[in-house]
Amino acid sequence: MPCGALKMDTQLNAGDKLFKCGVCHEMFKRNGALKTHMRVHTGDKLFNCDVCNKLFKHVSTLKSHMLIHTGEKPFKCEVCDEQFRRSNHLRHHATVHTGVKPFKCDICGKMFINKSNLNQHCLIHPKDKTFKCEICQKLFMQTDGLERHMVIHTGDKLFTCEICHKMFNKNSSLKQHIIMHSGDFVIKCLHTVVTCGNT
């Protein structure tokens, strides 16, 4: 009997389970079933690939592996028809179409569709030259990045529109605002009306 297997020594009725796993106490009718079960605990890999002789613990893993040799790709993207051997590869690929980027760089805030792309990106950041916001712990590569970020916490508005004098705490917000001034429309200010347009 395999290590950990205990044969039941009591008299059992026909059809009762006779073999007990000494590790998890699951019961089996046949010693062969117990031996197969014991692979779960011992880590033995008994399913053999006929092509490359690689061994697997489960037949389902062997079947998935065989797709490498057959070239079969049963998982198809419904958007672009690209095919994949594994369902997790298809799920990873799908983020290309959704635009979802759940992995964020703690230093610069750039977003990525997968962890490996984030890890590759992080290599560009020097480990010893980061500046941390003491309020939210966000990291920056340069002091001016930290200074611009601090405006979020202080509420200071450092960027002013030269056309209507509206103030913004981010330069990007100001640039987006300025685009609005390029069309032909009227902006109502507190005291005057300014007409903007190409004249």
From TrEMBL:
<protein>
    <recommendedName>
        <fullName>C2H2-type domain-containing protein</fullName>
    </recommendedName>
</protein>
<feature type="domain" description="C2H2-type">
    <location>
        <begin position="19"/>
        <end position="46"/>
    </location>
</feature>
<keyword id="KW-0238">DNA-binding</keyword>
<keyword id="KW-0862">Zinc</keyword>
<dbReference type="Pfam" id="PF00096">
    <property type="entry name" value="zf-C2H2"/>
</dbReference>
<keyword id="KW-0677">Repeat</keyword>
<dbReference type="InterPro" id="IPR013087">
    <property type="entry name" value="Znf_C2H2_type"/>
</dbReference>
<dbReference type="GO" id="GO:0000981">
    <property type="term" value="F:DNA-binding transcription factor activity, RNA polymerase II-specific"/>
</dbReference>
<keyword id="KW-0479">Metal-binding</keyword>
<dbReference type="GO" id="GO:0008270">
    <property type="term" value="F:zinc ion binding"/>
</dbReference>
<keyword id="KW-0832">Ubl conjugation</keyword>
<dbReference type="InterPro" id="IPR036236">
    <property type="entry name" value="Znf_C2H2_sf"/>
</dbReference>
<dbReference type="GO" id="GO:0000977">
    <property type="term" value="F:RNA polymerase II transcription regulatory region sequence-specific DNA binding"/>
</dbReference>
<keyword id="KW-0539">Nucleus</keyword>
<feature type="domain" description="C2H2-type">
    <location>
        <begin position="47"/>
        <end position="74"/>
    </location>
</feature>
<feature type="domain" description="C2H2-type">
    <location>
        <begin position="131"/>
        <end position="158"/>
    </location>
</feature>
<dbReference type="GO" id="GO:0005634">
    <property type="term" value="C:nucleus"/>
</dbReference>
<feature type="domain" description="C2H2-type">
    <location>
        <begin position="103"/>
        <end position="130"/>
    </location>
</feature>
<keyword id="KW-0863">Zinc-finger</keyword>
<feature type="domain" description="C2H2-type">
    <location>
        <begin position="75"/>
        <end position="102"/>
    </location>
</feature>
<dbReference type="Pfam" id="PF12874">
    <property type="entry name" value="zf-met"/>
</dbReference>
<feature type="domain" description="C2H2-type">
    <location>
        <begin position="159"/>
        <end position="186"/>
    </location>
</feature>
<keyword id="KW-1017">Isopeptide bond</keyword>
